[in-house]
Amino acid sequence: MLKIAWSPKYCHPLPEGHRFPMEKYNLLPEQLLYEGTVTEDNFFSPVSLDEKWILNTHDDGYYLKLRQLQLSKSEIRKTGFPLSHALVEREVHIMHGSVQAAIFALEYGIAMNIAGGTHHAFSDRGEGFCLLNDIAITANYLLANNLAKKILVVDLDVHQGNGTAEIFSKDDRVFTFSMHGAANYPMHKEQSDLDIGLPDKIGDEEYLKILRNNIDPLLELVAPDFIIYQSGVDVLASDKLGRLGLSLQGCKERDRVVLELARHNEIPMMCCMGGGYSERISYIIEAHANTYRLAQEIYF
């Protein structure tokens, strides 16, 4: 069964006009239920993650300041969010959603988090709509509990997974692969184990060729026993922040490449959603929904 993390806390209200589309966290499960891709039984409700697993990845001092709402104005500005207790609780629930989804993936082959993909959170700070890094926390949880020995992070969000790269820069148990817009945020890129910077306006055919040429050899090179997939849909040509040129079908084929590779090689995978900022919310929902449709088609 496809297990999916979702919580009302994912839909924390933001000031009117804020460019981060919180409404997608309600609309996506509604769409999946309406069309029959999933039922209520597919969803589970995350809770607050035990802070020992957060501190297993993030700096104690940073997390204390975050919990006590003591970040400086500059630190808050870099996150892109107005800081509040509700926002921090939202983030902690997202962390548990990804950890629990990874545990379900060990049983079912794949599991998803409606939110997550907070790859801009560093060990000691937040950036780019990310306060804590669910990819890193999940990987470290699996390693600490001997549930995985070698993890491959496949980050196909349009923005480089800079926080994840920093966190695992000295840990060879986690291989970080980021394929992103070369000229997009962040302007200063961290060094992943494999970075592929893409030119603006790259289309479906060239994008998919580059992806296939790189991800297939990675399985042999890395020999992972778990994959974490950041499936941001800000690669779409319609995305306000993305600058790439993928169609909805191209984005879907991107997901198919990753999911079929994991399924064929019997490597458990946890998928988190990442970014998506198209002007029309329907494009964002359709692109995200395709990931879930493919998971059902390929795995179940």
UniProtKB/TrEMBL annotation:
Alphabetized Pfam families for the sequence: Hist_deacetyl (PF00850)
Q: Does the keyword Hydrolase apply?
A: yes
Q: Which domain of life is it from?
A: Bacteria
Q: What is this protein called?
A: Histone deacetylase
Record domain Histone deacetylase: where: 18-288
Query: Which species does the entry assign this protein to?
Result: Arthrospiribacter ruber
Example GO biological process term? epigenetic regulation of gene expression
Which InterPro entries does this chain map to?
HDAC_classIV, His_deacetylse_dom
Task: Extract one GO molecular function annotation from the record.
Answer: histone deacetylase activity
What CDD domains would the database entry show? Answer: HDAC_classIV
Alphabetically sorted, this entry's keywords are: Hydrolase
